[in-house]
Amino acid sequence: MPAKYHIHVRSVPPRFSPLAKSTIIDWAEGCLRCARCVKEQCPVDAYRKRGFDRTQFVDTIDELCRDCYRCVQGCPRELIFKASNPQYSRIGNEYWTPEILAATWYQAETGKIPVSGAGYGGPFAGPGFDSIWTDMSEIVRPTRDGIHGREYISTSVDVGRKPMFLTFDSNGELTWPSPPLLELPLPILLAAPSLGANPGNIREIINHAAHELGTLAIVARERLTAIPEKTASLVMPSYTAGSLDAKDPLLSQVRIIEVLDHPGVLEQLEAVKKRHPELIISVKAPADGRVVDRVAELTAAGAEAIHIYASEEARGLGELQETHLKDLIRRCHLKLVENKLRDTVTLLVSGGIALAEHVAKAIICGADAIIADLPLLLALECRLCRQCAEGGKCPVEIDTLTVRRGAQRMVNLVGAWNNQLLEIMGAMGMREVRRLRGEVGRAMFIEDLEKEIFAPLFANREGELTKREPT
User: Fold this and answer.
1) What's the CA gap between 88 and 375, in Å, rounded?
2) pTM of the predicted protein model
3) CATH code of residue 82
4) Residue 462: per-residue pLDDT
């Protein structure tokens, strides 16, 4: 049995005070000067440790406070109270909510799973990935501890083409060589986000983080010059439509590349494979109205891997803007199952993967692995203000961030995601992430429950009263 895959996390404090959801308002007028002030009873010593961040003009007590409300309830003159922080509510957008940004910052800082001591008080279902409930039936068994227990849980995935069957000669040898296959220790690839101040520095940070994690870093080919030999095997150059040249010297240095889908992509792949037979080629296909048929067509033609990319809000592109990524993954997966080709190809997905739970849920829907992009930028303390896209100055100065510091925060984030994936699989009683792919029997979809169970229960039956009459 191989050694357990372990991600080495290390605390990396933020350079800027993270915005807190609420703020403490502390009035001095009317204070009774109690012999034992409620501020001295703070369990986290927030009042003693507080300071003032002159860069952001914020009181640091907000990030120290853990919302126990002891001081608010204990002050005899009610001079302390909590209020919503207007700055917090303005960060992000409807999809990339302030809660997602705050959770990502915490995980990038500590490498730990965010836990609320007061318990979860939000809704238990919602749109998109929130409409999926995962199976937790094995969580009651104390031996099912995927992180610290004795049982081994593998998060390794394979990228590449797999043969439908094997044939052997009289000596027991394969009659043809097996196709190239790349094994990654976790089902998460890294890619440069579309935003960010100093993109060159961000790419270097991502490359360094990918090397530490042992996974792939997807980088645009035009942004690549020289690749260090020790990291070449983990760099995945991405080519635009029609830019792939079989004579490109970079093809002999890397193990896998990505090509944007276009009408002549299959002919291009064939020409490159003749010259570099050990190279794995992934086709990047947009999640538009043609994606299901296109994925089936590319797979039947021999594609080794297909990258389905959606919008930043986990929505389809073009005419499928109202369709969620999870539904598109399921359609592509089931189409390949119907064609009896699912096990031959690797499906990678990106777009709107914002939380650790999205990784597991995307795999349950049929993906082999996901590609993280925007969360990597959030790990660098990004507020998603998008000023960098307009040529403005980054408020958290990502452009001055050192590679080592930024890479460790990305490693911490992926480490927290990986631990949460292990927890989910341990609660399911599963020991292999490859088995999780397409395992919809281990999940419940709210849409299906509403249609199959709740709709018949609450439907208006003919001849029955729909409202109780008063007596």
Assistant:
1) 18
2) 0.89
3) 3.30.70.20
4) 52
